[in-house]
């Protein structure tokens, strides 16, 4: 369901160049063996595996309640120590719905967005992504089966299955995975009120949601439809498990072999000419500099630059927005766009910054009649004296509502317009909060309401293709991010799939056991009934998480 590839590696030898470059020299005296730009979901694990002589560029190393307590992930979105506040334009100018300056939170710390995400760990529905890569590269190691059996098993430390009965999973890796923390209720049965009990079981109606899926992350479930228990990247002590933990462990076990450059901005890839090919031999960096979307940005300034060089490879894993920016600032991109800002095109690759895609997500919200006992008195604060739930968390082995992350059960379905051979394309995840999407102030809205219910309908493998463009040649110039939602062929089918998901969520909430506890639907609301009304709601409230469509961004000749 989720994209198989969210970061990109820069292929270091590119055959088509259009500008004069210095000749490559002997790299024996380079600073590092490898340079990895980015310490998030892609760059972090790679840097750890190259720890014998690696170099990673990262933001802060931040460890606090927001980055470790599962339920505090909502607070982490506005944590000034780590936040990146991107804005984007949802639709093209002149579209009948205007949604400019939309907020898109990311993290600038060691571990990247793995320290502020919702910890949902679902890898089903990715066969077409990985198998597509295997075909494109003529390399079977990219296949869905091999990626799970060779790599997923290697990184996973599964805490909820039996090894002998679970050949698709790993039990000795660095990424802890677990299910919902039902031990919280056995530790304190008071938390298990009738509302939370009804919510936990209400999605399991086989006539509406489909059959049970016993393991959402098994190979056999990749194309399954039905309802399953969500897996999370949370350890046995109910603490977030992330790439940051992996990097910290490697640095401790291999001192001096993994060098982290914190609070450093990568500004350019250093390129040279080797036998008529373009080769990356290092990175230009600006220690102490901030991105314009960071809380610690104080204005664009002349940057204090220095160069770091690599003996072997430079790997760009700077995220969905900064990776294309870094490539374009280095002269790799669309020659016409680069020339607008006085950037000499080294390699004309017009695909850089195109094919931006976004999971289409739309929330349906209900208000229940009573507060959940599980969240009684909870304020999601950092001072235990002001938050009784934090005090309880710290003194009762992490056994309360703060052990829960960003979803409960997950319903996986296939839209009616999908061809028979297509994978399931709609995921609906449920949460005992009011969550309307990403907008400034959403963390406080979530924590202020203790009797909410949300179903987020997510359309996987969407049709939309957006862009990331430069607005200037300075590394601290903001980016022009256009999502262009629903504008590509297939946009109307995506809308229809989300509409079906909204109707299905409404049907589940109208049934026992949850219906007696529902006070009202607050979004879209009881007056939004017809298909046209629901579609209008979708256009005005869609949100999501970005990725680039694999392959095209860097391999267009």
What is the secondary structure topology, with strand pairs?
Layout: E1 13-14, E2 32-37, H1 43-49, E3 54-57, H2 65-68, H3 73-76, E4 83-88, E5 102-107, H4 127-137, H5 144-155, E6 156-158, E7 175-177, H6 183-187, H7 194-202, E8 226-229, H8 243-253, E9 258-261, E10 264-274, E11 277-287, E12 306-316, H9 319-329, E13 332-333, H10 335-340, E14 347-348, E15 356-358, E16 360-368, H11 388-395, E17 409-413, E18 426-431, H12 442-448, E19 452-459, E20 467-469, E21 480-482, H13 491-509, E22 518-523, H14 531-541, E23 546-548, H15 552-555
Parallel strand pairs: 2-3, 2-12, 3-9, 6-7, 13-14
Antiparallel strand pairs: 1-11, 4-5, 8-17, 10-11, 11-12, 15-23, 16-19, 16-22, 17-18, 18-19, 20-21
Question: What does this 3D model show about the protein?
Answer:
The chain has about 550 residues and is α+β, with helices and mostly antiparallel strands.
Q: How far is it from the N-terminal to the C-terminal residue, by CA?
A: 29 Å
Runs in which pLDDT lies below 50 for 5 or more consecutive residues are: 1-18, 52-57, 548-557
How many helices?
15
State the helicity in percent bands.
10-25%
Radius of gyration: 24 Å
Structural class: alpha+beta
Mean pLDDT comes to 92
**SS strand fraction:** 15-25%
Count of extended strands: 23
Shape: globular
What kind of sheet is the major sheet? Answer: 7 strands, mixed
Q: What would a concise description of this structure say?
A:
The protein has 557 residues and is an alpha+beta fold. 23% of the residues lie in helices and 22% in strands. The strands form seven sheets. Strands 1, 2, 3, 9, 10, 11 and 12 form a seven-stranded mixed beta sheet that branches.
């Amino acid at each position: 369901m989720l994209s198989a590839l969210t970061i990109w590696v820069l292929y270091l030898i590119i055959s088509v160049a259009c500008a004069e470059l210095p000749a490559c020299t002997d790299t024996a005296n380079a600073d590092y063996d490898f340079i990895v730009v980015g310490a998030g979901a892609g760059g972090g694990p790679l840097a750890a595996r190259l720890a014998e002589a690696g170099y990673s560029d990262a933001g802060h190393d931040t460890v606090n309640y927001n980055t470790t307590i599962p339920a505090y992930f909502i607070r982490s979105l506005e944590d000034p120590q780590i936040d990146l506040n991107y804005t984007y334009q949802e639709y093209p100018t002149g579209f009948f719905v205007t949604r400019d300056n939309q907020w898109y939170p990311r993290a600038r710390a060691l571990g990247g967005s793995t320290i502020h995400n919702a910890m949902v760990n679902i890898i089903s529905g990715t066969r077409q992504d990985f198998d597509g890569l295997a075909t494109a590269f003529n390399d079977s190691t990219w296949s869905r089966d091999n990626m799970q059996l060779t790599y997923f098993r290697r990184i996973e430390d599964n805490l909820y299955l039996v090894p002998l009965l679970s050949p698709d999973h790993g039990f000795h890796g660095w990424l802890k995975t677990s299910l919902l923390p039902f031990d919280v209720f056995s530790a304190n049965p008071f938390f298990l009120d009738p509302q939370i009990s009804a919510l936990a079981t209400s999605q399991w109606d086989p006539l509406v949601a489909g059959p049970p899926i016993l393991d959402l992350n098994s190979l056999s479930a990749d194309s399954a439809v039905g309802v399953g228990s969500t897996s999370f990247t949370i350890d046995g002590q109910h603490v977030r498990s992330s790439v940051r933990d992996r990097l910290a462990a490697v640095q401790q076990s291999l001192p001096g072999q993994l060098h982290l450059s914190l609070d450093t901005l990568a500004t350019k890839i250093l390129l040279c000419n080797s036998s008529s090919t373009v080769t990356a031999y290092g990175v230009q960096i600006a220690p102490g500099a901030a991105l314009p979307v960071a809380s610690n940005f104080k204005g664009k300034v002349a940057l204090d630059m220095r160069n770091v060089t690599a003996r072997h490879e430079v790997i760009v894993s700077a995220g969905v927005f900064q990776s294309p920016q870094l490539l374009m600032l280095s002269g790799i991109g669309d020659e016409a766009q680069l020339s607008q800002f006085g950037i000499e095109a080294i390699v004309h690759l017009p695909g850089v910054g195109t094919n931006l895609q976004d999971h289409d997500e739309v929330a349906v919200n209900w208000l229940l009649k009573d507060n959940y006992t599980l969240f009684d008195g909870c304020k999601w604060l950092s001072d235990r004296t002001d938050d009784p739930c934090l005090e309880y968390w710290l003194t009762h082995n992490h056994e309360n509502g703060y052990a829960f992350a960003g979803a409960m059960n997950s319903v996986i379905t296939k839209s009616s317009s999908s061809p028979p051979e297509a994978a399931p394309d709609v995921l609906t995840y449920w949460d005992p909060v009011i969550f309307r999407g990403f907008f400034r102030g959403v963390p406080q809205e979530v924590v202020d309401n203790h009797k909410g219910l949300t179903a987020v309908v997510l359309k996987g493998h969407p049709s939309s293709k957006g862009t990331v463009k430069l607005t200037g040649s300075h590394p601290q110039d903001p980016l022009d991010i256009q999502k262009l939602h629903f504008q590509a062929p297939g946009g109307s089918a995506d809308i229809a799939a989300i509409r079906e998901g909204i109707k299905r969520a409404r049907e589940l909430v109208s049934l026992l056991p949850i219906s007696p506890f529902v006070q009202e639907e607050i979004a879209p609301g009881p007056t939004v009934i017809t298909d046209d009304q629901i579609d209008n709601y979708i256009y005005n409230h869609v949100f999501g998480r970005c990725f680039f469509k694999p392959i095209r961004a860097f391999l267009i000749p």
